[in-house]
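Contributing new records

If you add data, match the layout below exactly. Sequence lines come first and carry their own label; structure lines follow with theirs. Keep one chain per record. Anything else will be rejected by the validation script.
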Amino acid sequence: MKTAAVVLAAGASERMGGPNKLLMDLGGRSVLARTLNAVISGPFDEVVVVTGRDADMVKTIALAAGARTVHNAAFSGGMGGSIAAGVGVLHAWNVVAIVPGDLPLLRTATIEAVLEAAGPDRIARPVVEGQPGHPVVFGNRFGPELLVLRGDDGARPLLRRHAARVTLVGCDDLGAVSDADTLAELHALQRCLSSYER
């Protein structure tokens, strides 16, 4: 199967209270660089990073990691538009992983496990202690619906609509459910970093 990843790095980071969370330091590397390390190490044929706020700096990190970028000029309109922008520039694909850029402790093994559970007419995502996480992998059957997503809900409406086609992959990777929306969450990730080093 042709596999692709769309890494969402366009958000305004409003809950961080000023700084762009993706550019903040976590153990000597930016949050986004750590997330991309897990993604680029995965079995993807194509990785696209969607830029928005601080586009030039985000693009520099993405290119250094080996990904390409697409800019979502309307990034303030919510995650849905960023998903659509990323999927819209992909080449032929069978499954696409949607990965928030603020999952710096995400393990490549988790990405691989979710990809194995996915298929052209299936959706797969990890679940950790009952909590659904990321990445969410969509088969190309859902491509037309991904391309018209808009708003802050991202792909949640699609997941609800196709709940019968969602496979949950149990794992123990706290990195799949640990994002960096606030300064307190970033500090918590810092404390966990040593046991999650890849």
